[in-house]
Amino acid sequence: VLKVVENLGVSYVRGSDSYKTKLENELRKLKFPYKALAEDDYEARRKDHISHFILRLAYCQSEELRRWFLQQEMDLLRYRFNELTDSLRQKFLEHVNLSFEAISEDVKNELANELYASTPGLTMIKVKEQMFYKVGLVDAVDLFRARRVFIKDGFAYVPLKEIDAIVLNNYRTKLSKALALTARSLPSVQSDERLQPLLNHLSHSYVGPDYSVQKNTGKISLEQIDALSVKSYPLCMRQLHKALRDNHHLRHGGRMQYGLFLKGIGLTLEQALEFWKKEFIRGKVDADKFDKGYAYSIRHNYGKEGKRTDYTPYSCMKIIMSNPPSQGDYHGCPFRHSDPELLKQKLQSYKIPPSGIAQILELVKGMHYQLACQKYFELTHDVDDIGFSLNHPNQYFAESQKLLSGGKELKKELNNSGNSQQKSNSQESMNSSSTPTSSNTTADAELEGLEAYFAED
Ligand code: SF4
Questions:
Q1: Which atom of ligand 1 is nearest to the CA of 319?
Q2: What GO MF annotations does this protein's record show (predicted)?
Q3: Is residue 174 domain-shared with residue 321, that is, in the same domain?
C-alpha cells in the first residue's frame, strides 16, 4: 500500500481529483480497509493497526527508512482524513486528542465578515459552506504566523481545508518520536529469534513473482546478450554487464546480482558457465582457476551445489537496501548508489534527453529510486506511462521484452512464470527477496557463507 502511495504521490498532484480516484482504485484492488472507520469495521481496523506497528518496527531501523515511511504514512493519512464525513472527522479528532471544536452555524454567521476578511482564498459563499474549527493558538502557530486565520480570544478559527495540515503536523511529530523510540528498543526486539529474520527482511521485502523459474530458459542465446543489455536491461544490470565486458571480471557482489539476473532472464546453467568463463579468461583468471573457484558459485546459484537451493534473482528493494557497493564494485542500484553527477554523465552517454535526466535526478533527490528507474524505462522505450509498478530488475526486462516484441512469445511465458510464483504465501514471498526459493534461514546463511568465500575477489 505504501509503495502505491509513493508512486501516486510522485506521478500526480496530491489531493487532485485524479490522484484521489487513482488511489481509491488502487487501495480497493489491494483490499486495503481505507474506509474502516466509516464502515465501523473493527476487524479491518485491527489488522490495519497491527500492520502499521509491524512496519514501524521494520522501518525504524535507519534514518532513510524512517523518512520514507513517514512521508508515505503522512500522504495516506491526508487522503483518509479528507475522505471522512464531517461527523467522523470530528470523532477522529476527539479520538486523537485534538479536541478542536467545530463552531456552530450561529457563531459562524456572527463572525462571517471577520472570517471572510482573515481567511485567504475564501469567498463569502465558501465561508458559509465551510466548517470552521476553534483551535488553540499553539496548534495553529504556522497558520497564525502566515496570517491565514482569524484570531479571537486566544483561539484561531481554522477552516476545514487547513485542519488537515494541523492533524498531519501533529501526526508527523508523534510518529517521528515513536519511530525514534522504537529504534532505541530494537536491540531487545532483535534478540528474539522469531522476530529478527522477519524484521530484517521486511523493509526490503518483495511480494511479486520471484523469477526463479523461467519457461523461456534456454531461449536466449549468448550472442544476444550485448544487444539485450542495451535494449532491455535496467540500469543496474547494464552497468554490471558493461563492467564485466570492460574488465573481464566482477567482484562477488556483482557476480551474485548479475548472475542471478541472467538466470532469471533464461540463461541455462551451461550457458552461464560458458558466458562467465569466456569473459573471465580474457582477463587475469585462467581456465583452471575458473573451473576450480568460480564455477562452483555459478552452479550453486543454480541449486546444483551445497544445499541445492534454487536461488532467486534479487529484487530492487534487496539491491537498494542491502550490501552497498564499495570502491571497485559495480553492483547495487545506480539510482541509489551512484553519485548524482556520475549518474547524470551516464544518462547523457545513453542519450537520455536533458529534460528526462532532470526528471530522473529530481526523483533520485527525493529518494524515489524505483520511480527514477521507471522514468528511465519510459524514456528508453519511448512510452508515456510505464503501466506497471517496478519492483524487480527481471520484471523490467520482461516488460521491456513484452513491449519490444509487441507482446508475443516471451510475454506469455514470463507472465506464466510470474503467476505460478505469485501463488506462494506471503511469508515465502517475503523471504523470496532474500534469495532462496525454498526460503529458510539456513539456506540464507549458506549463501552468506558462499559470498564470504569469494569475498576477496
Ligand atoms: Fe535496478 Fe531496481 Fe535500481 Fe532499476 S530500481 S536500477 S531495476 S535495482
A1: 8
A2: 4 iron, 4 sulfur cluster binding; DNA binding; metal ion binding
A3: no
Between the CA of 338 and the centroid of ligand 1 the distance, in Å, is: 12
Whether residue 208 is contained in a domain is answered as no
Domain assignment present for residue 258? The answer is yes
Is the same domain home to 233 and 336?
yes
The verdict on 29 and 100 lying in the same domain is: no
| Mean pLDDT score across all residues of the chain | 80
Q: Which domain holds residue 158?
A: 91-164
Mind listing the pLDDT tens digit for each residue in 234-247? 999 999 999 999 99
- Does the pLDDT of residue 53 top 80, yes or no? yes
Same-domain pairing of 114 and 154: yes
Ligand 1 geometric centre to CA of 231 (Å): 15
Please tell me the residue having the least CA distance from ligand 1 atom 1. Answer: 236
Per residue in 401-455, pLDDT (tens digit) is: 989 887 544 433 444 433 333 333 333 333 333 333 333 333 344 334 333 333 3
Regarding whether 133 and 40 lie in a shared domain, the answer is no
Query: Using one digit for the tens of pLDDT, what is the confidence trace for 94-143?
Result: 887 777 888 888 888 888 888 888 888 888 888 888 888 888 888 888 88
Q: Are residues 385 and 398 in the same domain?
A: yes
**Within 6 Å (CB) of ligand 1, which residues are found?**
234-236, 316, 319-320, 333-335, 369-370, 373, 393, 396
Per-residue cell: 404: 519490444
Q: Tell which atom from ligand 1 comes closest to the C-alpha of 393.
A: 7
